[in-house]
Design brief:
It is a single chain. The protein has about 300 residues and is mainly α. It folds into two domains: about 90 residues, DNA polymerase, domain 1; about 180 residues, Orthogonal Bundle (hpI Integrase, Chain A), CATH 1.10.443. Helix content is about 60%, strand content about 5%. The protein contains 14 helices and three strands. Strands 1-2-3 form a three-stranded antiparallel sheet. A hairpin with a 4-residue loop joins strand 1 and strand 2. Helix 6 packs across helix 11 and helix 11 packs across helix 14. The chain is globular and about 60 Å long.
Length: about 300
């Protein structure tokens, strides 16, 4: 049995015997902690190894999967309860859930980077090194296409249509979507293939994954998250950046430049247009600030 499964079984016994919670409540807590456990499996982590960054990344993945605020709030409550138990039983002496708060009923507008901040971020990787060439290509492609971070790191050669300038993504329900990435993304990928990928490639480990680590294995979510934070710090960006912020920036900048909301929905792979409409609020809020600052009758 996996270590996280042992923790879960022990925790469920505790809330049933000691806390005497109702069966339905226990089942809902179980579902939540199992969702989190599956997320950690991809990172090869146990509950006791988790830090706050892991929690934030997990919550962003929930939003990527279009979980609503009530569901996210319930999962946060379940994880707080789980870590109280783990501390009580001395499996760990601290909780990564400190200062993690459930979302309000009205979700906050997503944070995004300005054009200037995006340019600064793209200038941060040292392109005189293979790692810098790779990282630049990853950031450029993610910003140019609005891919989810999981879609980016699991991207395979057969999904890439370099000459035509697009990638094919298999999303929810096995639905394929076509996502263009533009001339800058194409140039960045060409440089990566010509100058860097061959040095990372390993016949036994790499398969046909596009983005590879120094060991020749597919790049990980955690690895990309860490790199992005380091580049943001180097670029002087003070916002709490994450891979999903690049996706927010992609959508917001498209809308600001006149793109149709339905087109943005298709590119992002949102099943519901209401999920995409959050970006209209960003756009209108920005227009309102400009109006109030510049119009003589404001």
């Amino acid at each position: 049995m996996k270590k996280n499964d042992i923790y879960i079984d022990s925790y469920l016994t505790y809330i049933k015997v000691e806390k005497q919670l109702a069966d339905n409540t226990i089942e809902s807590y179980k579902n939540d902690v199992v969702i989190f456990s599956r997320f950690l499996e991809k990172e090869d982590k146990d509950f006791i190894d988790v830090i706050k960054d892991d929690i934030e990344e997990f919550l962003e993945e929930l939003y990527e999967k279009e979980y609503n605020e009530n569901s996210v709030a319930h999962i946060i409550t379940s994880l707080k309860s789980l870590y109280k138990y783990l501390i009580l039983e001395r499996y760990t002496d601290s909780s990564p859930m400190i200062n993690i708060h459930p979302p309000k009923l009205e979700r906050k507008l997503p944070i995004y980077l300005t054009f200037k901040e995006i340019e600064a971020l793209l200038e941060a990787p040292d392109q005189s090194t293979p790692e810098g060439v790779r990282d630049y290509a990853m950031i450029e492609l993610m910003y140019s296409s609005g891919l989810r971070v999981t879609e980016l790191i699991t991207l395979r050669m057969r999904q890439l249509h370099l000459e035509q300038g697009y990638v094919s993504i298999l999303g929810k329900g096995s639905k394929e979507r076509i996502v263009p990435f533009g001339s800058r993304g194409k140039k960045a990928l060409e440089s990566y293939f010509d100058e860097a990928r061959g040095g990372f490639y390993d016949d036994k480990k790499s398969e046909d994954y596009i983005f590879l680590s120094r060991l020749g294995t597919p790049f990980t979510r955690q690895g990309f998250w860490k790199s992005l934070k380091e580049y943001a710090l180097k670029a002087g960006i003070t916002k709490n950046i994450s891979p999903h912020k690049l996706r927010h920036s992609f959508a917001t900048h498209l809308l600001e430049n006149g793109a149709d909301l339905r087109m943005i929905q298709k590119m992002l792979g949102h099943s519901n247009i209401s999920t995409t409409q959050i970006y209209t609020h960003i756009h209108y809020e920005r227009l309102s600030k400009i109006f109030n600052k510049t119009h003589p009758r404001a």
